[in-house]
Amino acid sequence: MKAIYTIGLLILSNTFMTLAWYGHLKFHEWKWFNKLGLISIILISWGLALFEYFFQVPANRIGYQENGGPFSLVQLKVLQEVITLIVFMLFTFTFFKNETIKWNHLVGFIFLVLAVYFIFKK
């Protein structure tokens, strides 16, 4: 059950982080957003990233073996990276219709999946 909680919290965490890091690239379509300066955009992104920590920190505490969780530190990091990639790709294809996936992207994703396989292999 801790594994499911950890993965769920990591998905929520990465959703907020993706919005914080890349959302502003799409928000420019809102008229009021165009009037903001760089500092305001940074503060909005920082505010979104704060919510990332509300999910990331508990995910790591629940999931870490030393706290009774199922994952080693390395496994937590690799899991987080793969979740980040999945969330990012869903975000990209949902909000940035002009982006396309190319063969080299697919090869890179396959290598990341292989990394997960090898990191979790006993």
Show the helix and strand layout:
Blueprint: H1 2-27, H2 31-34, H3 38-63, H4 73-95, H5 103-120
Helix pairs in contact: 1-3, 1-4, 4-5
Which sequence of SSEs, written as H and E, runs from N to C? Answer: HHHHH
Whole-angstrom Rg: 17 Å
Helix fraction?
Answer: over 70%
Main sheet attributes: strand count, strand direction, barrel closure: none
Per the principal axes of the C-alpha atoms, what is the gross shape? flat
Count of DSSP strands: 0
Number of domains: 1
Category from helices, strands and their pairing: mainly alpha
Question: Would you identify the regions where 5 or more consecutive residues have pLDDT less than 50?
Answer: none
How would you classify the quaternary structure?
single chain
Tell me, rounded to a whole number, the average pLDDT.
91
How many distinct helices? 5
Termini separation = 20 Å
Short description:
With 122 residues, this protein is mainly alpha-helical. The chain contains five helices and no strands. The protein has one domain.
Keyphrases for this structure?
single chain, mainly alpha, flat, 122 residues
Mind explaining what this structure looks like?
By secondary structure, this protein is an all-alpha fold. The protein has one domain (2-120). The protein has 5 helices and no strands. The chain has helices at 2-27, 31-34, 38-63, 73-95, 103-120. The protein is flat and about 55 Å long. The chain starts with a helix and ends with a helix. The relative contact order is 0.15. This is Membrane protein.
